[in-house]
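Why should sequence recovery work at all? Because a backbone constrains its sequence more than one might expect. Tight turns favour small or flexible residues, buried strands favour hydrophobic ones, and helices have their own preferences. The token representation captures these environments compactly. In the example below, the structure is given first.
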């Protein structure tokens, strides 16, 4: 992991939403965007509040028509997370959104380029003390005339990248646009340069990070449904974040945007860029040794943990006792399935051996009790009372079943302490 690149810091929000800092030493923030019409106030508020509850630090809404910016005022009254107005083509929408009290504006240099129009938006944002994201998108900056000639000319600037000409255009667009902002001494800026191509996204942001001091909003645009979009997004954003690049991010899916927030947060937790809130679930992939319906159990445990646990307890759900203990190393609470039963451990100490249908309730009961103990200072996360040692071996494969059923498995699994 590379140290975080130094960027300026901008602030988004106010007293009623709380202030989110982007850039500098602020934690990397997670954004998402509503998928419905902004002028449908009730539906839009509902969607914003769902994203807020899922952990979004900022929520963006599209404002293509005046009826959308008219709705903004009421939407802002009914929500408590900073709202970004996404403006394309019509600079008036930006002015109307600022007037409505929005907390940040996104402009696209590819479709609002008139200097007077940009100046009007800058002045309005300056008066309202709100920042602007300058978001160039591969899809809206490609200049289609003389494409081959430009490709050859511009590609020379970044010969190491197969997308050199696109990176050159993105940087040129940003420089050109930033000149307008600098002339008006406006620096409350965040930058993005998204593409649907993960490798272009990595190369473009890497080059942009070398050239500009503004905080960077990361994203792979039009990444598709979660099944494919997650890979595209995580490979690009994960690489950049591991290289110290990125101050805020949006993962874009063609599906429920709550997944964008959940996956964005999980990415940051995995890279230790944010402190985890809530339980961390570890689960085995299952194999031919599986001894309970693990897929169902894991999904039920995941949902319940999300609802009931708000401290970073590590919970492991393992399909068998053969490899489970080793795989659950480090978990605060673990269950190992065996012969249609579940053996439950709390920080390495066996506390129960229950039937399969009782596993979920007992595991959650232990999680709730443990959470309470941590809150009261009676237990510490990540500490183990007894080390769980994998069995060594327990006879022929499968011969441990009888011992598991008899409840004496701890004599096999806990040995060298
Ligand atoms: S814990 Fe057991 S069932 Fe799960 S993958 Fe490992 S060996 Fe297979």
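From this structural description, the recovered sequence reads:
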């Amino acid at each position: 992991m590379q140290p975080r690149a130094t960027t300026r810091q901008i602030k988004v929000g106010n007293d009623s939403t709380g202030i989110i800092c982007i850039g500098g030493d602020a934690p990397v923030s997670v954004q998402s965007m509503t998928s419905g019409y902004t002028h449908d106030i009730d539906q839009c508020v509902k969607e914003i509040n769902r994203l807020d509850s899922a952990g979004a630090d900022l929520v963006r809404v599209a404002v293509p028509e005046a009826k959308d910016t008219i709705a903004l005022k009421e939407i802002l009254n009914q929500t408590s997370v900073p709202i970004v107005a996404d403006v394309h083509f019509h600079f008036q929408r930006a002015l109307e959104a600022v007037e409505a009290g929005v907390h940040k504006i996104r402009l696209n240099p590819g479709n609002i380029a008139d200097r007077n129009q940009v100046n009007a938006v800058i002045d309005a944002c300056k008066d309202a003390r709100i920042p602007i994201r300058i978001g160039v998108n591969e899809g809206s900056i490609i200049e289609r005339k003389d494409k081959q000639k430009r490709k050859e000319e511009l590609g020379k600037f970044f010969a190491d990248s197969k997308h050199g000409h696109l990176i050159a255009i993105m940087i040129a667009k940003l420089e050109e646009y930033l000149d307008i902002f600098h002339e008006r001494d406006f620096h409350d800026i965040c930058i993005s340069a998204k593409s649907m191509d993960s490798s272009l996204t990595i190369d473009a942001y890497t080059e942009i990070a070398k050239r500009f001091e503004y905080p960077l909003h990361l994203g792979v645009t039009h990444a598709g449904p979660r099944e494919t979009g997650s890979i595209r997004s995580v490979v690009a954003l994960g690489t950049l974040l591991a290289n110290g690049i990125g101050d805020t991010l949006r993962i874009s899916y063609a599906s429920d945007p709550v997944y964008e927030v959940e996956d964005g947060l999980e990415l940051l937790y995995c890279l230790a860029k944010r402190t985890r809130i809530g339980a961390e679930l570890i689960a085995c992939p299952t194999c031919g040794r599986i001894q309970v319906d693990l897929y169902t159990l894991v999904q039920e445990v995941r949902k319940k943990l999300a609802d009931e646990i708000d401290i970073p307890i590590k919970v492991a759900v393992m399909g068998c006792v053969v490899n489970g203990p080793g795989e659950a190393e480090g978990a605060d609470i673990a269950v190992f399935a065996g012969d249609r039963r579940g053996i439950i451990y709390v920080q390495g100490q066996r506390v129960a051996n229950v039937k399969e249908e009782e596993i979920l309730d007992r595991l959650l009961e232990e999680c709730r009790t443990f959470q309470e103990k941590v809150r009261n200072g009676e237990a510490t996360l990540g500490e183990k009372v007894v080390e769980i040692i994998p069995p060594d071996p327990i006879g022929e494969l499968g011969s441990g079943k009888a011992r598991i059923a008899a409840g004496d498995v701890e004599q096999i699994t806990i040995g060298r302490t």
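A few observations help interpret the result. Confidence is low (pLDDT under 50) at residues 390-399, 409-417.
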